[in-house]
Amino acid sequence: MAKLLVLTDEIQNVDFGVEADFIKLEKAPSSELLRRARTYGAVFVLSNNFWQMTATLAKNFDLKSKISFARDIKIVQSVSYEAPLCGFRQSFESGREAYSELVVRELEVERSARVAYELAKDKLIVADIPEIKALSSLIRKVVSEVNEDYPYISVSTCSLAQLLLSATKGKVEGDILAFTPTASELEKFFHPVACAYLSDDAFGVYGGDPKAVLPFMLKNSFDL
After folding, report:
1. Is residue 153 within 8 Å of 164, Cβ to Cβ?
2. What's the sign of the alpha-carbon dihedral 158, 160, 165, 169?
C-alpha cells in the first residue's frame, strides 16, 4: 500500500491510519521534496499555516478540485491557476478602458460537479451568482447534465446572497458546490477547518484538522 507523507511544524504523535513518513515543514518546499511527494499516496500538511502550504503544493501538482471542510458542510470548488484575463483596450466611444474577465471552463465545472455529487450524501446545493448570467447559465447546464448520473441526490440552486441568508438562520442542509468568486465568500462565512485538493487519480493534498478530513482522505487516496 502507498504511504502518506506528512509535512508538519513539529513531529507529532498522530495516527493517520496508514503508514506515514513525517518531515519537518520548510517555509518553501524544495524541488527534491516536491519530486518525492508525488511518489506518495497523498500528502498531509499538519500546520497552522496549512491553507497556504496546501495551496502551494496543489498549484505545483496542478490539482484542480478543492474541498473545504466546515463544521456541518463541505464546500466543493474548481481551482484555476491561470492569470485572469485583464488589461487595457481602446473604446471608440470612451477612449481607453481597463477590463477584467472571469473565465470558467465547462470541463472545470463538470470535474467539480462530479466531486460534489460523489461527496454529497443526499443533498447538494449549487451556489452561483445569477447576475453573471453567462457563468450561471453554464454552471446550471453542466450540473443538470451531471445530475442524470446521480438521480438519488437532491440538488437545488440558489444565489450566493440567498445561501448566506439561509446560513444566518441555520437553514443550510446539504453540501455546497460553488465557483469563483462564490467559494471564497462562503469560506469566509463558514470558517472551514480542513481542506483537500484532488487530482484525477487517487493522489491528493490534505491539510488542517485531521478529524475533519481523515475519513475522506483514507477513502479517496487509500481506498480504505
Report:
1. no
2. positive
